[in-house]
Design a protein that fits this description.
single chain
């Protein structure tokens, strides 16, 4: 899939320099950045749901290793 992105010139310079510093091309840098953002947002939503569940029922369970 090809995606076209329009950004101001000063942003393009920043993006290119960042990609260069991290030994990536622009496509890989943008792809990794977007995937990272999606993962962060997903993790935040998971945390919020878990916190709400905990507030409703603040019981915790201790997890121990089986010593068999």
């Amino acid at each position: 899939m090809i995606i076209s992105l329009r950004i101001p010139d000063e942003d393009a310079v920043l993006f290119r320099k960042y990609a260069e510093l991290n030994n990536m091309n622009m496509s890989e840098m943008i792809r990794q950045t977007v995937l990272s953002r999606i993962e962060t947002d997903f993790d935040l939503e998971t945390y919020k749901k878990a916190l709400e569940e905990y507030k409703k029922n603040p019981q915790t369970e201790e997890i121990t290793e089986n010593e068999d």
